[in-house]
Amino acid sequence: MVMIQFSRTGIQGSDMNKQDSLRTLSKAGLYLVTSSEFSTLPVMEVLERFLKAGGKLFQLREKAFAREQLLETAKMARKLADQYGAVFILNDDVDVALAVNADGVHLGQDDMPIKDARKLLGNDLIIGVSTHNIHEAIAAQEDGADYINIGPVFPTQTKAHAKALGAEGIELILPYVKVPFTFMGGIKEENIPALLKYDPAAVAMVTEITRASDIESKVKKLLSISLCY
Predict the structure, then answer these.
(1) Residue 33: how many CA atoms within 13 Å on its side-chain side?
(2) Whose CB among 24, 91, 121, 192 lies 3.0–4.6 Å from 125's, allowing a Cys bridge?
(3) Cα angle at 155 between 209 and 81, to 5 degrees?
(4) Which is nearest to 35 in space by CA: 228, 171, 204, 226?
């Protein structure tokens, strides 16, 4: 990855330290992952409605954005996260995460190695990693991931090429997991209860939230389910 250094001048950092952020993440229940290509509303409108409804954990994942557009959007996301006391994770881009004082960064298997990201981020930011099997889950933890995402649990538009794990795949991975974990991939309101028996920190969702006809009502309903166990 080519690193482009952006100025941090004038960007307010989070009032939460890393441990505060991890505590919030570990009991968030619901994890919004934005994606404009799968949204009916602009990303910042989706994000604000999510936070107004009580969401406390989100990932800005806008792979189609140019770097400057991502930077400007991330600045606005930082302000909203501070306003609502939420944890702001940026997908993939360590450089922009540093520039806007994000609470952390989420890395895929093809992104910057965790150890390299940690050298750049230091110990004050969260690093999350997408994992799809036992090998990736163990490797992510050994390399210093603060949390892992396990998925896709069900077939999903956002990762159409990936095989869904299902309950069997989840149960193979979880005995090896020693850090907070989230689930993602094709999760809908009706199958949250079946996943909560595994005690995830949160269930991550894209279209169930971003394409909801009433995002605030949907988020409140999802939180009432995901936080009741």
Answers:
(1) 23
(2) 121
(3) 30
(4) 204
161/214 Cα distance (integer angstroms): 30
Neighbours of 225 (CB within 10 A): 16
**Residue 109 per-residue DSSP state:** T
Question: In DSSP terms, which residues pair with 107 in a beta bridge?
Answer: 129
**pLDDT beyond 90 at 186:** yes
Alpha carbons within 13 angstroms on the beta-carbon side of residue 219 total 26
Whether the per-residue pLDDT at 165 is higher than 70: the answer is yes
Rounded to 5°, the CA angle 43-47-50 comes to 140
Annotated catalytic sites, by residue? 61, 130, 159
Burial label for 104, CB within 10 Å (0-12, 13-18, 19+), is: buried
